[in-house]
Write a structure and sequence with these properties.
This protein has about 190 residues and is mainly alpha-helical. The strands form two sheets. The chain has a three-stranded antiparallel β-sheet with strand order 3-4-5, with no helix packed on it. Strands 1-2 form a two-stranded antiparallel ribbon. The chain has two domains: about 100 residues, Winged helix-like DNA-binding domain superfamily/Winged helix DNA-binding domain (Arc Repressor Mutant, subunit A, Orthogonal Bundle), CATH 1.10.10; about 45 residues. The protein has seven helices and five strands. Bound molecules: iron/sulfur cluster. The site of iron/sulfur cluster has 11 residues, from loops. Iron/sulfur cluster binds next to loops.
Length: about 190
């Protein structure tokens, strides 16, 4: 008979995995928060590359985020600029050097291991694990009143192949969304 792990054991495994991911974040002269910020800025949409959105994603204060961004900027990995027509509001963009560094992302090894597990999976359980983790994340985020920061294509405001789209649309901002933008993460994302 198969014995199922208890919920407490699963939480323990998630914690250990998280620790392992964080430990890998001390690489290439960056710390885990700097890696996380760089990854977020490379994946988020153009409306979400603000210091406030980044602070929300990292679950930290604007002061701490400012130090993280300054460190990344000093290393030439990101560039700050004023948002056109929005006074002193800032956008933070990953530079070419930052994107080059992301090709050596230390969490890549974990992604590779995950891909191997998914390839070996014949029962479809990898999909079930992803769904369960997604559901768990949503419950925890709701309980802590955290934003979801999900992919655009999974948002309740996302309209696939909508008239006037590119080919999609965002109903919240009433703007076209390209196929590439549909895969970006967004600070205003609301689970569908
Ligand atoms: S559809 Fe949702 S996730 Fe996409 S841009 Fe609009 S608010 Fe953001």
């Amino acid at each position: 008979m198969t014995s199922h792990p208890t919920p407490a054991r699963i939480v323990d495994l998630i914690e250990r995995l998280g620790r392992s991911v964080r430990l890998r974040g001390y690489a290439d002269n960056l710390n885990p928060a700097q890696w996380e910020a760089l990854r977020y800025l490379a994946r988020c949409n153009a409306r979400s590359n603000t210091p406030t959105a980044l602070a929300g994603f990292l679950g930290t204060t604007k002061g701490t985020v400012s130090q993280t961004v300054t460190a990344l900027e000093r290393k030439g990995l990101v560039r700050k600029a004023f948002r056109p027509g929005q006074g002193r509001a800032l956008s933070i963009k990953v530079t070419g050097r930052g994107r080059d560094l992301l090709r050596r992302d230390p969490t890549e090894a974990i992604e590779t291991a995950m891909c191997r597990l998914v390839d070996q999976d014949r029962s479809g359980s990898a999909d079930a694990v992803r769904e369960t983790l997604n559901g768990l994340l949503r419950i925890v985020q709701d309980a802590c009143a955290q934003r979801s920061y999900g992919q655009c294509r999974t948002c309740r405001h996302f309209q696939a192949d909508a008239p006037g789209g590119l080919p999609h649309r965002c109903a919240l901002w009433d703007e076209p969304v390209s196929a590439a933008q549909a895969n970006e993460i967004c600070a205003e994302h609301q689970p569908a």
